[in-house]
Amino acid sequence: MGKLLSAAQVEAYRRDGFVTPFRAVSAAEAERWRQEMARTAAAFDLAYPKPPGQRQSFSRIKPYLLFRWAAEIVRHPAVLDAVEDVIGPDILVYHTTLWWKEAGTDGFVPWHQDGTYFGLAPHEHVTAWVALTPSTEESGCVTMLPGTHKVGQLPHTDRSDPGIMLSRGQTVKAEIDPSKGVPVPLQPGEFSLHDTMVLHASAPNRSAVDRIGLGISYIPARCYHTGPTRLSATLVRGENRFDHFDLEPAPQADFDAAAVAAHQDSVGRFFRASQLMPEMALVH
Length: 284
Known about the structure:
Blueprint: H1 7-16, E1 18-23, H2 27-47, H3 68-74, H4 77-87, E2 91-101, E3 109-112, H5 115-118, E4 120-121, E5 126-131, E6 142-144, E7 156-157, E8 171-172, E9 182-183, E10 190-195, E11 200-202, E12 211-220, E13 224-225, E14 232-237, E15 246-247, H6 257-276
Parallel strand pairs: 14-15
Antiparallel strand pairs: 1-10, 2-12, 2-14, 3-11, 4-13, 5-10, 5-12, 6-9, 6-11, 7-8
């Protein structure tokens, strides 16, 4: 038995590349996070508008460095217990994206592997997807292709479709049979885990409510960035015995001067690394 996962659940993760669902907090607590997210993101976006041509505002990129609600989520014991069961006790947050599909909109995520774009070795990172609102088939929940984490790195290409929510429209080149996809619905306060190499996608939100979730990329401290830019990460459990990343501070207040400076530094490094590494995305 692990801290949160049963032996069968760990086996399912190793076999399929994902396992779901788990509960982190109550629906009421998830709603508190959602309300704080809406308040702080709106205030931040007003103060720091996104530049022309960028698909997502900066408030959705590494929000755990800016906002206390996001810092709480990435450190939540239930989420970390599940992550520890699949990657071990020394855990860093490498990246985090706030996924916000507004009701009745056409935004979607094509089939892709996260590991193509993060520039990490070895490919051991795990994403915890934490739902703040219902994530259903109608609202465009994440859909996984079981077992595809075992096929290795697949070629990807960039697409110019404005509906794609990924930064460069990155899409796997392989032929995909969508009938083999497994939807991963989540209720507010629940989360799933998926392997960095499993193929996954999500459809547009055709529901009457926004679909909002936080995708948290956790890595074991032994992982390192393969590019020349030294990046930063946040230690959330255990020890950082390998020193592959500069450690990031937690926000003491919602986007105060110190938090904004730490966020700008971390995201700036990430963007510079992205330019140096053509296979790496700016977000997720």
